[in-house]
Amino acid sequence: MKRWLPLLPLILVAGCTMGPDYVRPPVVEPGEYRTSASADTTIADLPWWEMFQDPVLQDLIDTALEGNRDLRASMARISEARARLGIVRADLYPRVNYAADGALDRSSANDGTASSAFVALDVSYQVDLWGRVRRSNEAAVQEMLATEEAYRNVTIGLVSQVARTYFLLRDLDNRLAISEQTVETRMQTLGVVESRQRAGMVTEVDVNQAEIQVYEAEVSVQTFARLRAQTENVLSVLLGQPPMDIERGLSLDDQAQAPEIPVGLPSALLDRRPDVLAAERRLHAQTARIGVAEALKYPQLNLTADLGAQFSDASSSFAGLGAQIFGPLFNSGENQRRVEVEIARTEQLLNAYEQTFLTALREVEDALVAVETYDAELASRIKQLESASSAAELSWVRYEGGLTSYLEVLDLQRSLFSSQLKASETLQLRLTSTVQLYQALGGGWTAAQDSIAVDDGVISNDQDDE
């Protein structure tokens, strides 16, 4: 025991931790969003199965959450991070190794045999004088939590992508049906024009123009059929399935639309957006690594204990305690450069965290503008469609009465076809903008329900994981 007395001051300072303690850095945080919206609550508090009322869409999202390969890969990364945390945590505890051997010797001189055996235990423990192991453990914990936030981010992105693709598919269904109906209507028109041409009431030019209109609509049918099939293929892969036919549910017109969409306050993004939280976790981990590098500049203390026994003609046992202290004396500033490297990396991740938050603010603002403007655009598209439909009907009556040329009919029929297609597309974009806002706000989960706490090697559900 006496030989350990000179090391007592070093043992007593065990518990000191080098490097800065992490504190959430301040960010540029606006008090409210530029676009007028309710800040009392947020649509992001809704779980996705309440956000989307279409039962078929809900089933598709369920299937994607079970089978999507990107989501499975993200879950595997969590498992990897947990295993890495276990490796780092092992340095907090003593290590025990064993050794054993045996021998049987036969001597020709006395025609006898001799046997021997040896067993030993070796115990070693590195005293964490300067908190190097604790800082390493802190960094590993934060890296694991970052993978959990990344998993949530992939999950929200997947739910959003399935919903957007489904709405696009329903829009393409609409536009394909509009094109097929237009082909049928224009074929009927062509028949009327051909009858009038045979009666000598119009020239062959009118017939040719009517044929052009039919062919134009037929091209649109093929275009939207192709796009619809390709969109089904995209959605199938999101579900984790080979390309297949996708079931349909509610039409675009029947999809629920909230009259007002609450968004909460910008500051909520710091605790809700998984990508922002993941960036902060990585920053926290890197801050801890400064302490790891700082600790390498100071001495390290190892304690050892050896226990063993030897069995032979003269059996014996042994036990020993030891301590070893070692540290850098001269390395041309290498350890200080390591600290500077970690500080520079921390600064990089600080800027990445701030940029992630700014990007989150922009995405919310973009989605709010989209929701507001698509609302107004959809109202105008509906009015445009009503006017185009009325004008096309009146123009055809005028044409049959010989009061106008076929050019007027052609122009207004094109306008009607375009208005029908654009009205469907705008409705789809309106629905999609709500989904994008939901994703931008970090919707689908709350910090209180899903956060993970790691304390002394135990992982549990808790709100405070710092």
Blueprint of the fold:
Blueprint: H1 8-12, H2 48-51, H3 55-67, H4 69-89, E1 95-107, E2 112-127, H5 132-198, H6 204-238, H7 269-272, H8 274-295, E3 300-311, E4 316-326, H9 334-400, H10 406-440, H11 447-450, E5 452-455, E6 458-461
Antiparallel strand pairs: 1-2, 2-3, 3-4, 5-6
Give structural notes:
- The protein is an alpha+beta fold and 466 residues long.
- Helix 5 runs antiparallel to helix 8 and helix 8 (274-295) packs antiparallel against helix 9 (334-400).
- The protein has a single domain, classed as Outer membrane efflux proteins (OEP), CATH 1.20.1600.10.
- The protein has helices at residues 8-12, 48-51, 55-67, 69-89, 132-198, 204-238, 269-272, 274-295, 334-400, 406-440, 447-450, and strands at residues 95-107, 112-127, 300-311, 316-326, 452-455, 458-461.
Largest sheet descriptor: 4 strands, antiparallel
Broad CATH class:
Mainly Alpha
Low-pLDDT sequence parts = 1-14, 446-466
Q: What Rg is obtained from the alpha carbons, in whole angstroms?
A: 36 Å
Distance between the first and last residues' Cα: 39 Å
Named CATH topology: Outer membrane efflux proteins (OEP)
The helix/strand class is alpha+beta
- For the record, the count of structural domains works out to 1
Q: What is the strand arrangement across the widest sheet?
A: 1-2-3-4
Percent of residues in helices comes to: 55-70%
On the 0 to 100 scale, the average pLDDT is 85
**Got a strand count?**
6
CATH superfamily: Outer membrane efflux proteins (OEP)
CATH architecture: Up-down Bundle
Shape verdict = elongated
Count of runs of 4 or more consecutive helical residues: 11
Give the topology string: H per helix, E per strand: HHHHEEHHHHEEHHHEE
Strand content: 5-15%
